[in-house]
Each structure stands twice: as structure tokens, then as C-alpha cells.
Design brief:
Layout: H1 25-35, E1 46-55, E2 58-67, E3 72-79, E4 82-88, E5 93-96, E6 102-104, H2 110-121, E7 133-143, E8 146-155, E9 161-166, E10 172-178, E11 183-194, E12 197-206, E13 214-223, E14 242-244, E15 250-254, E16 256-258, E17 261-268, E18 271-278, E19 285-286, H3 288-294, E20 299-304, E21 312-324, E22 327-336, H4 340-346, E23 352-354, H5 356-361, E24 363-367, E25 372-376, E26 388-391, E27 393-395, E28 398-405, E29 408-414, E30 422-424, H6 426-431, H7 434-438, E31 442-449, E32 452-460, E33 463-466, E34 469-472, E35 475-479, E36 493-495, H8 497-500, E37 503-508, E38 513-518, E39 533-538, E40 541-547, H9 552-555, E41 563-567, E42 570-571, H10 577-586, E43 592-599, E44 602-609
Parallel strand pairs: 18-23, 19-22, 29-36, 30-35
Antiparallel strand pairs: 1-2, 1-13, 2-3, 3-4, 4-5, 5-6, 7-8, 8-9, 9-10, 10-11, 11-12, 12-13, 14-22, 15-25, 16-17, 17-18, 17-21, 19-23, 20-21, 21-22, 24-25, 24-37, 26-38, 27-28, 28-29, 28-33, 30-36, 31-32, 32-35, 33-34, 37-38, 39-40, 40-41, 41-42, 41-43, 43-44
């Protein structure tokens, strides 16, 4: 859910007939102030806003408090089964979710985004002594038959945003800001007078996909109401909403490592167990079929985005009880999302996903060597191992660590939900000219997530560092995505299980520490798929989705759209896709594999010879 950019955002209305005589941005902003209340703005110290929120087919409510002088703020949002609070106390950015779990927001785009929020909410474009920033005149622009004076503003510690001001009336019409994964435009309208100034009572925020627009209808605004200091402060942690079996303070459960993904068995509302993907930073998910089976009420159609370039509709519901091993967690919000596509990608079926909400409450040890997960009560945990400690910040739900790839420093997300070794995001790769540096010769589909397939160029680096942890010769993917999670300029790379499974890792979310212990996989070479093609299941056959130019599949004249109906004499329906992928990866260079391939109505047999591509 996006922040609504401050309901005090340029609280302005037009006064017709004011003429602009200069392109000086400071004068433009001064004219805006005059047109919207002039000196009356000088007396405003706080504001309190209540509004109705409509998005994704749901109605909700927003209540905001702003310290207009210092730029501190707190926003309370309720939408369907979700309640969220976001705040800034002048130094710390924080959030609180539906179950009252609290998180400092220190990674990703949060610092720059909050600097912009604080700047706008403190009206610092009029009062630069509050928060410094730089102005730039961006020109007179036409849009939808109207003319706008555009001022580009860059707050100190923030990122540029544009204020589009009606050229005839000086009404700030909309604000444009390029964020981590999208450009968001906030439109202001329905201006009304309040205590000597005029403010917008209608706000629409969009990223261009209009079905996901957020509509805010202001119901009341109060200025200069006393505000308690504690209102902006980081809230105290909530009391435990989980329980271990009597006499226990930890529980250990087995997991399946399939396609480098962790799957666990869990019960929901006492039913199951169900196979669920376990992802360090993932949201809770259930499929529509499981939601129906459990009798869960589903609300809304919000925007879901992942590594793919398309958006997907997701609903919201609430599960009363989640049980993993001997521990239960109460009152969990789940998104409702069909995983049918993932079943064809994974080659197995699953009923959903658990991740951040579970990891946040416990100390979690992922033993990749023995395929075991251990959940421990934080108060009962003391680390006694010999692993390397790596501190982290949160990038939203994801642990993010400082590191480097071949001595190029960056911030890296730790993602057990990724099958890759290391995906370097497109902006980072472009900034450091990694295509020229590594000269990758392999390009193709390398992953699949919400929004569809992800394409990359594949090569190998010399060394990845995560804090003081070193990983030699990792396979790296230079993302080619134009939309989705992998266009985030605030993240260097996404570290997946191809690297993580070399260690047994303890995740201590409460103290924001990771403990890396090398295991039996540590020295094994990192190998990229040796077939040179991406397969998904399609009924009783494997469908060829993508073929890497010059790779073994290409040389065997296999093409995208072909169907593989048999492998070495065994029908495809008797072979699990994860096992076939493992064979393509682990079979030594020179291994010959006989495939029966169907192209249209014609069927032929080919021999594919595996080889190292990177």
C-alpha cells in the first residue's frame, strides 16, 4: 500500500488571474503560497486529517497526524482485514502491521522516500529553514490541453519530484515522483477553505495501472490541535501472539528443497497440513482453492508485483491460526493468489506461502545441509555457534545486507524464495557497466515469479561478499527486466538459495542479525543449467518456454513452443520437473540425453549434449 504523500501535500487552491512574470521556481512557489492563503500558512503547526480510502474494490479509512514544523508524521490505515501504521519521528522511519509487529524501515528506498515525505509535510518549499532542498525550473509543459509550470524539487537526503502547477491559476495539480519500482503521480482536486487556507479534499494516486488507483476523500481537517510527542515514536513490541507446545521454547520441522525453494508442512485453522513455500521476505499467501476449503472470506483486488513485468490481482483474508510444528501463530492476514502458474513452473503443487510474519516472531535456523527448520522463542535464544555474524536492515520485509560483487559495493537482499545464486538488478548493472565488464554470452529466462518470467544475461563473478562472508565464483544473472521488483535502483542484487544453501543460516529478525555457518555444500561449484532451455509442465508433457542461443537445446534444434514428451525412453508424465532440472544441472559436460520432441503434429527424437554455459 502506497503512502498517500501527505494530505498536507501542497494544500493549495487556485486564485484566478494571478500572472506569472518569471520562470524563477522560488517565485512560482511564492505565488502558490499567496494564492492559497499567504501568511495564514505561517500559523499552522500541526494538522489532523481523517479520510476515506478506496482501492482494489475495498473501502477503508486513513487518519494522519503531521508535525508541520518538524516534518514528523504518523499515518493509520485500515483497509479490509488490514490495519497498518507508518511513522517518522524525525530520525527513525517505522511501520506497524496488522498484528502490531513493529519494524524499522532502514533499507531500500525508505530513507529517500521519507525525506521527501518530511519535506512536503513540513511545507519546506515555502519554509526552507525547516528542511533544506534544491529547486529547479523544469519548464512550461502541456498535458491534456492544459499548461503547467513545472518545478523540480530535490529535498536534502531525498530524491527529485516534480510539482505540476496550473499555469493560469497556480493550483498544484499533480506531483510526479519516480520511486523504486514505479513512477507515481498524485492528483489533487476539490479544494475547500479551512482556517484561512485552502486544501484539496480529493486525492488520486496512480502508477499508470488505473484499476489499482488509490482514491482518498478527505472527511475532516483540523489545524493546530495539540499533538503528543509519543505519537510519532517507534511503538513498543506487542505481546506474543504465538504459543509453543507446553514445556517447549523451540520446534524443528523438516523441509523439502525443491528447485532451490524451501517447502514446509503447515496447518491453517486446524486443517491440513498443507505444503507451503517458505520465503524470508514473502507475504503470507493462500490459493483461492484453499481459501474456499477453509471457508475464508476474501476481499478486494489489490496490485501484486514480483520479478515479472505484469501485475496480478490479489485479495485479502485472515487466518485465525497458523501452525508449524509445535508452534502456532494467531490472526494472520493472508493474500489470496492463484498459484496454478507456479505449479507448472515448479512442477509441484503447493497451497500458499509463509515467510516474513513467521520469521519476524522467532529466531529461525535454516539448516540447508539436513533440510531442517528450527523456530526458537527469541527470549530463549543464545547463539553459540562459530558462524559469521552479518548485521542487516529491513528493505520492507526483506533482510538487506551491505556487501560487494567483485569489489563493487552495494546493498543485497537475502531471499530464500529465489532459486538463483545472485540476481543483479538492472539499474545496478547499468550503473556499473557490468555488461561490458563481464561480456556475458548467455541470455534467457532465468526465473519466474508474480508477473511472469524474468530474463537475464548469465555469467560468473569472482567473489561475492555479504558483510564478512565470502563466496567464490558465483553464477550471476544481470537482470533485463523493465518492470517489477528487479528495476529497483536502491538494491544491488538479490541473493538466492544458490548461494544461501552453501550455509546453515540463522535469521534473528529481532536483533537484525544473520549467522552464516558454512556447510557441506560450501565448496561445491556453482553450476548453471547445462541444457540451455527453460521448461514448464503442461499437462503430461514439458513445454519449452525459452531456448538459449548456441546452447545444447538450440544445437539439438529444440525451439520455444516445442513439447518434450519423453526423456531417455521415459514418458514425461513419469518424470518430476524438479528432478529433470536437477539432472540438466548436475549431469556432467558431455552427458548425452535422448529427448522425444513434439513440434506441432510432428514428433522426432533428438540427442542433446550437456555443456557448461558459464
Amino acid at each position: 500500500m502506497q503512502r498517500h504523500s501527505g494530505l498536507t501535500l501542497f494544500l493549495a487552491v487556485a486564485v484566478a488571474g494571478v500572472a506569472l512574470t518569471t520562470a524563477d521556481p522560488a517565485e512560482i512557489l511564492s505565488k502558490v503560497k499567496q494564492a492559497t492563503g499567504g501568511d495564514a500558512w505561517d500559523a499552522i503547526r500541526t494538522d489532523h486529517v481523517k479520510a476515506k480510502l478506496t482501492t482494489g474494490g475495498m473501502d477503508g479509512a486513513i487518519e494522519s497526524w503531521d508535525d508541520v514544523v518538524k516534518g514528523r508524521f504518523v499515518d493509520h490505515v485500515a483497509l479490509g482485514p488490514v490495519t497498518e501504521t507508518q511513522g517518522f519521528d524525525g530520525g527513525t522511519v517505522w511501520s506497524q502491521d496488522t498484528s502490531k509487529q513493529v519494524r524499522k524501515e532502514e533499507g531500500g528506498e525508505e530513507r529517500e522516500g521519507t525525506a521527501n515525505e518530511a519535506y512536503r509535510r513540513s511545507l519546506s518549499y515555502w519554509y526552507p529553514d525547516r528542511r533544506p532542498g534544491a529547486f529547479e525550473y523544469a519548464g512550461l509543459k502541456d498535458e491534456a490541453g492544459r499548461q503547467f509550470q513545472v518545478v523540480r524539487i530535490t529535498p536534502k537526503g531525498g530524491r527529485p519530484f516534480e510539482m505540476w502547477i496550473d499555469a493560469g491559476s497556480f493550483l498544484p495539480d499533480h506531483v510526479v515522483e519516480k520511486m523504486a519500482m514505479e513512477t507515481r503521480t498524485t492528483y489533487l482536486s476539490d479544494y475547500r477553505p479551512i482556517d484561512g487556507v485552502k486544501v484539496p479534499f480529493a486525492i488520486r494516486s496512480t502508477n499508470g495501472e488505473t484499476r489499482y488507483d488509490q482514491m482518498i476523500a478527505v472527511e475532516s481537517i483540523e489545524f493546530n490541535r495539540p499533538v503528543e510527542e509519543a505519537m510519532f515514536a517507534l511503538p513498543a513490541p506487542p505481546p506474543p501472539d504465538y504459543a509453543f507446545a507446553p514445556g517447549k521454547s523451540s520446534t524443528t520441522v523438516p523441509f523439502e528443497l525443491i528447485n532451490n525453494h524451501i517447502y514446509v508442512q503447515a496447518k491453517l485453522n486446524g486443517q491440513g497440513p498443507f505444503r507451503l513455500l517458505c520465503d524470508t521476505g514473502g507475504a503470507n499467501i493462500v490459493t483461492p482453492d484453499l481459501a474456499q476449503k477453509l471457508g475464508l472470506k476474501t476481499e478486494g483486488a489489490l496490485q501484486g508485483r514480483g520479478v515479472g513485468e505484469k501485475s496480478e490481482d490479489v485479495g485479502l483474508t485472515k487466518v485465525d491460526k497458523v501452525q508449524v510444528g509445535d508452534v502456532t501463530v494467531d490472526d494472520q492476514v493472508f493474500t489470496v493468489y492463484p498459484l496454478g502458474t507456479f505449479a507448472s513452473v515448479e512442477g509441484i503443487s503447493s497451497s500458499g506461502l509463509i515467510g516474513y510474519e513467521v520469521f519476524k516472531r522467532f529466531v529461525v535456523r535454516v539448516d540447508y545441509e539436513k533440510s531442517l527448520l528450527t523456530f526458537t522463542e527469541p527470549a530463549a535464544f543464545t547463539y553459540t555457534g562459530k558462524g559469521t555474524v552479518v548485521p542487516f536492515n529491513f528493505n520492507a520485509h526483506i533482510p538487506q545486507v551491505d556487501g560487494s560483487i567483485d569489489d563493487i559495493a552495494g546493498k543485497f537482499d537475502i531471499d530464500t524464495g529465489s532459486r538463483a545464486s545472485l540476481s543483479l538488478l538492472a539499474p545496478f548493472a547499468e550503473k556499473h557497466q557490468l555488461k561490458d565488464r563481464y561480456a556475458p554470452k548467455v541470455e534467457g529466462v532465468t526465473g519466474w515469479g508474480v508477473g511472469g518470467p524474468a530474463r537475464s544475461q548469465v555469467t560468473r563473478a569472482k567473489e561475492l561478499r555479504l558483510g564478512d562472508v565470502k563466496v567464490a565464483s558465483p553464477v550471476i544473472e544481470l537482470s533485463l527486466q523493465k518492470e517489477g521488483a528487479f528495476v529497483d535502483p536502491y538494491v544491488a542484487g538479490n541473493v538466492g538459495a544458490g548461494v544461501l544453501k552453501r550455509f546453515n543460516i540463522t535469521f534473528d529478525y529481532r536483533n537484525q542479525k544473520l549467522f552464516f555457518e558454512p556447510n557441506a555444500n560450501f565448496s561445491r561449484p556453482d553450476v548453471f543449467d547445462r541444457s540451455g532451455m527453460w521448461l514448464n509442465t503442461a499437462g503430461s508433457v514439458f513445454e519449452v518456454i525459452d531456448v538459449i542461443a548456441g546452447g545444447p537445446a538450440d544445437k539439438a534444434e529444440i525451439r520455444a513452443g516445442d513439447r518434450i514428451v519423453a526423456v531417455d525412453g521415459k514418458t514425461a508424465q513419469t518424470i518430476a520437473l524438479p528432478d529433470l532440472r536437477a539432472r540438466f544441472r548436475s549431469g556432467g559436460p558431455g552427458t548425452k540425453i535422448r529427448l522425444k520432441v513434439q513440434s506441432g503434429d510432428a514428433t522426432r527424437e533428438v540427442v542433446m549434449t550437456l555443456k557448461d554455459l558459464v
